[in-house]
Amino acid sequence: MLVQVRRTFLSALPEAKRSVQPSRGMRLVQFQAPHVPGTRLGLEEANGGGVIDLNAFDPSLPKTMREFLEQGEAALSVAKRAQESGQPALKRSGVTLLSPITRPDKVVCVGLNYVDHCQEQNVPVPTEPIIFSKFPSSIVGPYDDIVLPPLSTEVDWEVELAFVIGKEGKNIKAADAMSHVAGFTVAHDVSSRDWQMKRNGKQWLLGKTFDTFCPLGPALVTKDSVADPHNLSIQCRVNEELVQNSNTKQMVFKTEALVAWVSQFVTLYPGDVFLTGTPPGVGVFRKPPVFLKKGDRVRCEIEGLGTIVNNVV
Known about the structure:
Residues 106-313 form the Fumarylacetoacetase-like C-terminal domain. By secondary structure, the chain is an alpha+beta fold. It has helices spanning 54-57, 65-70, 73-84, 115-121, 193-197, 205-208, 255-262; strands at 27-33, 36-44, 51-53, 96-97, 107-111, 130-134, 139-140, 155-156, 159-165, 181-188, 191-192, 214-222, 233-238, 241-247, 273-275, 297-302, 306-311.
């Protein structure tokens, strides 16, 4: 039986409905292409199609997602015009997708935020969000390698729904929270369990923030593309074995509640990334525990948002 969470700002949130993917939303990406230098902004076509070069469509647009989001509706309207323009797309094989957001001001993470993950550990469901962080330097792209650090022998997988802030705010009410969210993406919260659970006073930061420990992507899917982010299938496979299989409706604290809670403590800025917790099936709680090793391949997928695939080296 699901445990009731006693937080007043959750009581008014709407009941989950089955996700429908409207056609008017956008899949924003950062990419590199051999014919132009540096990072560029693009629109990923549906079903793994090509990438529309937004900087070619309008050279005045910034070339990073964080700067794009800082420009607000003005930049989004340009992207929408590009989507409707019929501009030819670059072939997917000719571009390299980067993380949809790089160098955010902060990466906010949430622990024990799935009811079924709490049940897996036989721990109480939290009555307030458990917040920790990764350094932005841990972010890598959707198909980049995860590098096993020499300092750790217990590296684990965690598929997570992530959302990205699109508008600055402080002390944001839950009812207004979605106006501050730009969209959603897939995250892999790679975790060094020995450093998280045994070392450094059992504080989580160092175990969570090794370089390459935050793959994101493949796109920032704008919120108007996701009818209900809290009713999406979420899965992780290691070497094609299904190890995590749940639904975001199991989240204890939903997007609106997390924005409201965290913004009481810090100002949220465009580009800030929230990782919203993982479902059951992680390696550390298996009997015996299982950890990532060189040569493994991890696939994280969320319904309607896409799939990221990272090799372990």
